[in-house]
């Protein structure tokens, strides 16, 4: 099984910090997993960002995952990809990327999760937990109970797929979420829009590690 970090930080297009600045701050805070999520730039701009971010990640020993854009595989120092399309053919994507590249996917139902596991995904971002302004959508909210049920159903089916809660998660949600047996948490807005980015990241990290059920 590949290395999957329990707290995954996701960059976003926001007005006050570039993606590169977000990554620099996250790595200074101790981040070991960055998901670069930029759907607004052309390939040249994406690669400029990714190459700069990859250098920062290399300096800090941080895993770099890119949202979608699998056509950039091999063109920069990228360790993996996260696919947001819940209907994507992960079998074909895995074949295209090869087995060494980390591959994650988004899911909103247990059926999504089972399909991801069967088609070669290494982990799943399962959400949204709550309403989020970072990535607006109309999918049903999972809620704490939904995570617990999903974990139990996967166990019953003997499926081992690391689940990360994502979507509108606040610091006060972490303990209850981690107690459901999920693997970890992916976060963006609660850190990006905090008063102190580094302190917020470190508070999230500490709580995720302390609350994890092993």
Strand order, sheet with most strands? 1-2-3-4-5-6-7-8
Please give the share of residues in helix: 25-40%
Task: Report how far the terminal alpha carbons are from each other.
Answer: 16 Å
**Strand pairing plus helix content: what structural class?**
alpha/beta
Oligomeric status of the shown chains?
single chain
How much of the sequence lies in strands comes to: 15-25%
Radius of gyration: 16 Å
Low-confidence segments, ≥5 residues, pLDDT <50? Answer: none
Number of domains: 1
Describe the main β-sheet briefly: 8 strands, parallel, barrel
CATH architecture: Alpha-Beta Barrel
Tag the structure with descriptive keywords.
alpha/beta; 8 helices; TIM Barrel; globular
List the helices and strands and how they pair.
Blueprint (H helix, E strand, L loop, with lengths): L6 E4 L8 H11 L3 E4 L6 H18 L2 E5 L12 E4 L6 H8 L4 E6 L2 H9 L4 E4 L16 H14 L6 E3 L8 H5 L5 E4 L1 H4 L4 H15 L3
Parallel strand pairs: 1-2, 1-8, 2-3, 3-4, 4-5, 5-6, 6-7, 7-8
Helix pairs in contact: 1-2, 1-8
């Amino acid at each position: 099984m590949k290395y999957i970090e329990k707290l995954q930080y996701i960059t976003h297009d926001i007005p006050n910090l570039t993606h590169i600045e977000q990554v620099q701050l996250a790595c200074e805070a101790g981040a070991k997993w960055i998901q670069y999520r930029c759907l607004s730039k052309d390939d040249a701009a994406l690669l400029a960002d990714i190459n700069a971010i990859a250098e920062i990640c290399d300096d800090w020993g941080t895993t770099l995952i890119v949202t979608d854009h699998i056509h950039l595989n091999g063109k920069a120092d990228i360790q993996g990809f996260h696919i947001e399309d819940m209907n994507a053919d992960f079998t074909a994507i895995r074949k295209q990327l090869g087995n060494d590249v980390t591959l994650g996917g988004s899911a909103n139902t247990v059926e999504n999760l089972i399909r991801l596991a069967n088609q070669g995904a290494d982990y799943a971002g399962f959400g949204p937990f709550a309403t989020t302004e970072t990535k607006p959508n109309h999918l049903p909210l999972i809620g704490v109970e939904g995570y617990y049920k999903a974990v139990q159903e996967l166990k019953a089916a003997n499926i081992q797929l690391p689940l990360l809660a994502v979507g509108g998660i606040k610091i006060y949600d972490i303990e209850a979420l981690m107690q459901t047996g999920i693997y970890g948490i992916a976060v963006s807005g609660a850190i990006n829009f905090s008063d102190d980015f580094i302190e917020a990241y470190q508070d999230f990290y500490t709580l995720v590690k302390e609350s994890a059920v092993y």
